[in-house]
Amino acid sequence: MIGMAVLALVALAYRHPTADIRLITHDIADRSPRRVQAAVDLGLFGVSILYTWTVHRLR
C-alpha cells in the first residue's frame, strides 16, 4: 500500500516531454505585438504554442 503511494508520488513529480513551439513573426520595432498562446497537457506529453504578429494600422 505504501509502495503504491510512493510510486504515485514519483509518477506525479516526473516531468514528461513537452514540445515548445514559437512562431515569432512580429516586427522587432513593434512594442506591443499581437499574440496567441496555448498549451495542452495530455499526461504523457504536452504541447505549448506561441504565435506573435504585427498589425499595420492605418494612419
Describe the structure.
With 59 residues, the protein is an alpha+beta fold. Helices cover 20% and strands 39% of the residues. The protein contains 1 helix and 3 strands. The chain has one helix at 2-13; strands spanning 18-24, 34-41, 46-53. Strand 2 and strand 3 (46-53) form a beta hairpin. The longest helix is centred in the N-terminal third of the chain and has 12 residues, at 2-13. The model has no long low-confidence stretch (mean pLDDT 86).
Annotation, overall tally of beta strands: 3
What's the rounded overall pLDDT mean? 86
Assign an overall shape.
rod-shaped
In N-to-C order, the SSE pattern is HEEE
Query: Gap between N and C termini, in Å?
Result: 69 Å
